[in-house]
Specification:
The chain is built from 18 helices and no strands. The chain has 467 residues and is mainly α. It folds into three domains: 187 residues, MFS general substrate transporter like domains (Growth Hormone, Chain: A); 56 residues; 199 residues, MFS general substrate transporter like domains (Growth Hormone, Chain: A, Up-down Bundle), CATH 1.20.1250.20. Helix 3 runs antiparallel to helix 4, helix 4 packs antiparallel against helix 8 and helix 11 runs antiparallel to helix 18.
C-alpha cells in the first residue's frame, strides 16, 4: 500500500457523515448569508465611499460575475483534484477576503475583495453538495440534502436581521465579520471529519472555457452597467459590448470543440426541456434578483426604514420558502412540473405589480408586505419543481453538471438584472419610487414571460425522486 493510499484510508476512518453535513452547511452558508445581508447594507456602503450608482452595482456584480462564470469549473476541479481540498481552498479564500472587505480603505479594494469572494464561492458551493452526495447514500442522502438546503434558507432569513442591526449600530464593515466564524468552523470540521472524494479520470478542467466565459460575461455586464446609467451607448459601452459578445462566441466554439470534456457540453441542449428550464431560470431569477436588490434599497434610501426594519420586511420570503417548498416538491411529483412552473412565475409577476402600492407615505402592511408576500408565494410554488425538473431533464450521468449549470444560469440572471438598474439606483426621493415602480413592472413582464416558457417548452419532464 502506498503512503497516499494509507493516508486516504486514515481520512476515511475518521470521516463522520453528521459532521460532514455540518461542515458543508457552514461553508455554503457563507454564500447564502452574503447574498441576503448585502441588500440591507448597500445604502450605507454607497454613502461611506461617496459612491455612484454604477459603483453600487459593482459591489453586487463583482461577486456575481466570477461566481456565475466559474461555478461549473469549481465542481469540475473538485472532481479532478479532490472535493474536500477545493472546499477548504474556497472557504479559506472567502474567509480571508471577507476580512479584506471589512477593512477595505477604498472602493476599488472592496470591489477586488468582492471578486475574490466570488471565486471562493464558486469553489466551495458545488463541492459542498458533492461531498454530501459522497458521504450519504439511500434515503439518508435525500434527508441530508434537504437539511443542507433548509439551513441555507434559514441562514439567508436571519442574516438581514443581524446585518441590519450591525449596519445601524456598528457600521457596514461588520457584516463581513459574520463570515469569519462560519469559515473557520467549516475549515476545522472539514480538516477533522470530512473524507476526501474525487471522480477518477474527471476531465472537465476547462480552463479556456472558464476564462472566456468570465471575459464574455464581464464585457457584457460592464456595457449594460454603462448603458443603464445614461440610457445610451457610449463608445466605451459599445466596445465592451462587442468584446463581451466576441468572447462569448469564442466560449461557445471552445465548448463545441471540447465535446464531452467541455465545462458546458452543448449536447445537453439537444433536449427541448433542458433548454426551456434554463431559459425559464434565467428569466425568473433575473426578475426576482432585481426585486430583491431594489426593495430593501428603496425602503432604506427613500422609505424611511432602518436597516433592521428592511431586514424584517423581507422575512415572509424565507419563512414561506422554508415551510412550504417541501410540500410543493411532493405535489409537483404527483401532478407534474408544468402547472407549478406556469402558475408560480405568474404569481411572482402579480406580486411585482403590487409594488405600485409602495410609496413614501405607505405603511409596511399596505405597501411592501403584499408585494413581498405574493412574490414569496410564487417563488415557493416554483423553486422545488424547477430544481427537480432540471435533474429529471438529463441522463443520470449528467445530473451534477446540469444542476451546476442551472445554478450558474440563475446567478447570471441576477448579474444581468443588476447591471440594468443604474438609473434607478442613481435616483432619490419620489424619482426613486417612480424608477422602482417602472423596474418592477418590467420585472413582472419578464417573470410572466418565464411562465410562457414553462407552458410551451416543458412537455414530458420526468420528476427526479429523492434517493
Amino acid at each position: 500500500m502506498s503512503p497516499r493510499d494509507a493516508s486516504d484510508g486514515a481520512r476515511a476512518r475518521k470521516a463522520d457523515p453528521r459532521w460532514t453535513l455540518l461542515a458543508c452547511i457552514l461553508a455554503s452558508s457563507l454564500s447564502f448569508v452574503d447574498g441576503s445581508v448585502l441588500s440591507v447594507a448597500l445604502p450605507a456602503i454607497r454613502e461611506s465611499y461617496g459612491a455612484g450608482a454604477q459603483d453600487v452595482q459593482w459591489v453586487v456584480n463583482a461577486y456575481l460575475l466570477p461566481l456565475s462564470a466559474l461555478l461549473l469549473l469549481g465542481g469540475a476541479l473538485g472532481d479532478h483534484f479532490g472535493r474536500r481540498r477545493l472546499l477548504l481552498i474556497g472557504t479559506s479564500i472567502f474567509g480571508a477576503t471577507s476580512l479584506v472587505c471589512a477593512l477595505a480603505p477604498s472602493l476599488p479594494v472592496l470591489l477586488a475583495a468582492r471578486a475574490a469572494q466570488g471565486v471562493g464561492a464558486a469553489l466551495l458551493l458545488p463541492n459542498s453538495l458533492a461531498l454530501l452526495n459522497a458521504a450519504f447514500s439511500g434515503p439518508k442522502r435525500g434527508r441530508a440534502v434537504g437539511i443542507w438546503a433548509a439551513a441555507g434558507a434559514a441562514a439567508a432569513a436571519i442574516a438581514p436581521l443581524i446585518g441590519g442591526w450591525l449596519v445601524g449600530t456598528v457600521g457596514w464593515p461588520a457584516i463581513f465579520y459574520i463570515n469569519l466564524p462560519l469559515a473557520l468552523g467549516a475549515i476545522l470540521l472539514a480538516l477533522r471529519f470530512v473524507a476526501e472524494s474525487r471522480e477518477p479520470g474527471a476531465g472537465r478542467t476547462d480552463y479556456a472555457g472558464a476564462l472566456l466565459a468570465t471575459a464574455g460575461l464581464g464585457g457584457l455586464t460592464y456595457a449594460l452597467t454603462l448603458w443603464s446609467a445614461t440610457r445610451h451607448f457610449t463608445n466605451a459601452a459599445l466596445a465592451a459590448l462587442a468584446a463581451g459578445l466576441a468572447f462569448l462566441a469564442a466560449f461557445m466554439f471552445v465548448e463545441y470543440w471540447r465535446g464531452q470534456r467541455a465545462m458546458m457540453p452543448l449536447t445537453l441542449f439537444r433536449g427541448r426541456c433542458f433548454s426551456g428550464l434554463n431559459l425559464l431560470t434565467f428569466l425568473l431569477y433575473g426578475a426576482f434578483g432585481a426585486a430583491m436588490l431594489l426593495i430593501p434599497y428603496v425602503l432604506i434610501t427613500s422609505g424611511g426604514y432602518s436597516p433592521v426594519q428592511a431586514g424584517l420586511a423581507m422575512l415572509p420570503l424565507p419563512v414561506l420558502m422554508t415551510s412550504i417548498s417541501p410540500t410543493m416538491g411532493g405535489l409537483a411529483a404527483k401532478i407534474g412540473p408544468r402547472a407549478p412552473l406556469t402558475v408560480g412565475p405568474l404569481i411572482v409577476a402579480g406580486g411585482m405589480m403590487l409594488s405600485s402600492l409602495v410609496s413614501s407615505d405607505s405603511s409596511y402592511w399596505t405597501g411592501a408586505f403584499p408585494t413581498i408576500l405574493v412574490m414569496a408565494l410564487g417563488m415557493t410554488i416554483a423553486v422545488a419543481p424547477l430544481t427537480a425538473s432540471v435533474l429529471g431533464s438529463v441522463e443520470e450521468k449528467h445530473v451534477a453538471m446540469a444542476s451546476g449549470f442551472n445554478s450558474a444560469v440563475a446567478r447570471t440572471g441576477g448579474l444581468i438584472a443588476t447591471a440594468l438598474l443604474g438609473s434607478v439606483l442613481a435616483s432619490k426621493g419620489e424619482r426613486l419610487f417612480a424608477g422602482f415602480h417602472a423596474a418592477m413592472f418590467v420585472s413582472a413582464g419578464v417573470a410572466a414571460l418565464s411562465s410562457l416558457v414553462a407552458l410551451t417548452m416543458l412537455g414530458g419532464i420526468r420528476m427526479k425522486k429523492a434517493a
